[in-house]
Every structure is written in structure tokens, then in C-alpha cells.
Design brief:
Layout: H1 13-21, H2 29-47, H3 50-62, H4 70-82, H5 92-108, E1 115-118, E2 128-135, H6 141-153, E3 163-170, E4 201-204, H7 233-243, H8 247-252, H9 255-273, E5 286-289, E6 292-295, E7 304-307, E8 310-313, H10 314-336, H11 343-351, H12 355-364
Antiparallel strand pairs: 1-4, 2-3, 5-6, 7-8
Helix pairs in contact: 1-10, 2-3, 2-4, 2-10, 3-4, 4-7, 5-7
């Protein structure tokens, strides 16, 4: 039975979490592993790779290890799904820059990865990638000859006189305006001329693959983060997102960020959701079922809610709701079992600067062995 541990964050969080993610005993291996499998199933179904995950889950249940290696198996299934389509040759470096930026964010700010807001000046390649394009031969014959020689030196089968032009572009979409995840970005950010960044990079990695607050239609934008032959940015982002509802990553995260993000999301969507009926009056009508939206006889990716901040499909709404709930369900289970966690998890708990964690430790810290 759920306790009121989450009241420290918000009075509504326990009920919200129970409805969307349920409760479990972290110290029970069967309950913990079963709950994690449920979360992966929801993520896979919402991201369009449910069949791949189902096959992996069947194999795990038939193995001697059971569900103990669910995270690595699920990530492997997602990687196989997302790498079927690769970046176009002219944009292969985009995968490299995306993966490098995500790795940098993990290394420099591990406690604040749910919502990332950072100036691009300190990121690899300035969060830009260069796209090579062939241009027609110049009118000046001599210049055309030199350009053709340059192309040959680069190993390209260039036409005589062709020019290779590199056009740097932003690696991620800008999310500067008001959205379901963000207030408007500050206007005083430095301008970086590399590919035109004039606002901070904003990514909601906790809700990957829906990472932009203004793009909550289907398919999810993060599913378009293609790989090249060596770098796989989407699986990197999925690993970050999954960490939010796996023990290690959850205890590294400062839940104040997640609470703030949840409140913004709740306040932005509540005026659109509250008037909805609790049962469908006609086929395809969107209605509320607890904390979820339902659209009988209609695709959850095609229908949804619409407001001043844009359209939100039912699939995105439910997915985002569930990811918030999963974070808090894991945090609650970890805090409840704090006296009996492994030394590694207890160390992470002790280092967490979240005041609600400190409040719980104020009761239990002297009992740690």
C-alpha cells in the first residue's frame, strides 16, 4: 500500500502516481523486476517497438536469469529497432554530434537530465553539424577547375568545376517559445554564429522520445534521431530516460527538476483535459479515464487535445503522464526501502541534495549500518 512519502513534493503526487504507475516493494525482487518490465512494455508500445520488446521479454522469462537483465535486453531491442534506418550520407555527422552532445550532458550534469536547458557554446561542435552540398560549376573556368581538383583530392567523384559547400545546421530543434514543457526562453542568450543558435538548447530527456514541448504529435521526434555506422544517439537518449525509473539514475536525479516539470505540464494541459467527458458520447471522441486519455475506435496517434500551445495526441499525453509517474513510483519505493538498500544505492541517496530526500534521511540516517 502506498505511503504519503510523495506529499513532500506535492499533495497530489501519490494519487497521480498510483493511478498511472502503481506501487511496488523495491526490496522484493519479483515485484521490482515485474514493475520494471511493465514500464518497459509501456515505453515500447508507446514508441512503436512493442513487438521487438515482446520477443525479448519472452526470452528473458524463459531464461534462468528471468527479468534480472531487463534493462540491457530492452535497450538492445530498442537499438535494433531504431537502427534499421540510418542517416543519409550527407548528414551522417548529425548522428555523431547528437550522440556527443548527449554524452556531454550526462557527464557534466547527471543530476539534472529530465529537462535540459543549456547554452550551446559549451557543447560539442556547438550543437551544429555540417551538411555537404554540391553546387553548379562557377562561371569562371579557372575557379571551376580548382574546385573540381579540390573535390578530387577529397576522394569525391566530382564533376569538373563542381563546388562543395558546407552548410552548418542545428543538430536539435529550437524549443524557445512557450510550450507544454517550457516558459519562453530568455532573450539575453548569446548568439552563436555557427548554425544560428540564439536561444538555449532545450530537451526533455525524461520524456524521450517526446523531447520538445511544442512537438507532441506522432511520430515522436526522438524516433527520427537516426544512427550512422558508429554512433547511435536515440539509444543514448533512451538510456538516459530509462535511468529516471531505474534505481541508479533515479537516485542521481534531483526530483525538484521533475516536480517543476510535472507542475508546468499539469498546469498547461489541465484546462484542455478538465472539460473532457469521462465516457465517449460518440465514436472517436477523446475522454478521460483517471489520469489517462482514451479515444475508442480511433488512433491514439491521430486524435488528442488542442490548445494555444499546440496539439497533443493521446499517445503522447499518456506516455508523458506515465513517465512522470514512473519516476515518482521508483523514488517512493527507494525512499520506503532506504534502510535496506545496497551500499551503492545508499551512497547515491546520501549524496542527493533533494530536500525531500534529506527529510527522509533525517529519520533514517542513524540506522544505516
Amino acid at each position: 500500500m502506498a505511503t504519503e512519502i510523495l506529499d513532500c513534493y506535492d499533495d497530489d503526487l501519490d494519487g497521480f502516481t498510483d493511478d498511472l504507475a502503481g506501487d511496488f516493494d523495491f526490496l522484493s525482487s519479483s515485484e521490482r523486476e515485474g514493475w520494471l518490465a511493465q514500464q518497459w512494455a509501456k515505453v515500447a508500445e508507446g514508441g512503436g517497438w512493442g513487438e521487438e520488446f515482446s520477443r525479448v521479454l519472452t526470452k528473458l522469462r524463459q531464461s534462468q536469469l528471468g527479468l534480472v537483465s531487463i534493462e540491457s535486453a530492452a535497450l538492445s531491442a530498442f537499438t535494433g529497432f531504431i537502427t534499421r534506418e540510418r542517416e543519409e550520407p550527407g548528414r551522417s555527422d548529425r548522428a555523431l554530434v547528437r550522440a556527443s552532445v548527449l554524452a556531454s550532458l550526462q557527464e557534466t550534469n547527471p543530476a539534472h537530465l529530465w529537462l535540459v536547458e543549456t547554452d550551446v557554446g559549451g557543447l560539442p561542435s556547438g550543437a551544429c553539424y555540417g551538411r555537404a552540398m554540391w553546387r553548379p560549376a562557377p562561371l569562371n573556368a579557372k575557379a571551376g577547375k580548382l574546385a573540381g581538383q579540390a573535390g578530387a583530392v577529397m576522394g569525391e567523384a566530382a564533376d569538373e568545376g563542381a563546388q562543395l559547400t558546407v552548410l552548418p545546421q542545428a543538430t536539435f530543434l529550437a524549443d524557445a517559445g512557450p510550450s507544454y514543457f517550457w516558459d519562453p526562453a530568455p532573450s539575453s542568450m548569446l548568439v552563436h554564429p555557427g548554425c544560428g543558435w540564439s536561444t538555449p538548447l532545450r530537451l526533455s530527456l525524461g520524456t524521450f522520445p517526446w523531447v520538445y514541448g511544442h512537438r507532441l504529435q506522432a511520430p515522436a521526434p526522438g524516433l527520427a534521431w537516426r544512427s550512422n555506422s558508429i554512433k547511435h544517439p536515440a539509444p543514448v537518449a533512451m538510456r538516459i530516460a530509462a535511468g529516471m525509473w531505474h534505481p541508479d539514475g533515479n537516485l542521481r536525479a534531483d526530483a525538484r527538476d521533475v516536480v517543476s516539470a510535472w507542475k508546468h505540464w499539469r498546469d498547461a494541459t489541465r484546462p484542455l483535459v478538465a472539460p473532457l467527458p469521462t465516457a465517449a458520447a460518440k465514436p472517436g471522441q477523446v475522454y478521460r479515464d483517471g489520469e489517462r486519455l482514451v479515444a475508442d475506435s480511433a488512433s491514439a496517434e491521430e486524435v488528442g487535445i488542442n490548445g494555444p500551445l499546440g496539439f497533443v495526441c493521446v499517445a503522447a499525453y499518456n506516455f508523458i503522464q506515465e513517465r512522470f509517474a514512473a519516476f515518482f513510483a521508483m523514488r517512493r519505493a527507494l525512499l520506503r526501502g532506504r534502510r535496506h538498500l545496497t551500499p551503492e544505492l545508499r551512497e547515491l541517496l546520501m549524496k542527493n541534495k533533494d530536500p525531500c530526500v534529506r527529510q527522509q534521511l533525517g529519520v533514517a540516517v542513524l540506522t544505516f549500518a
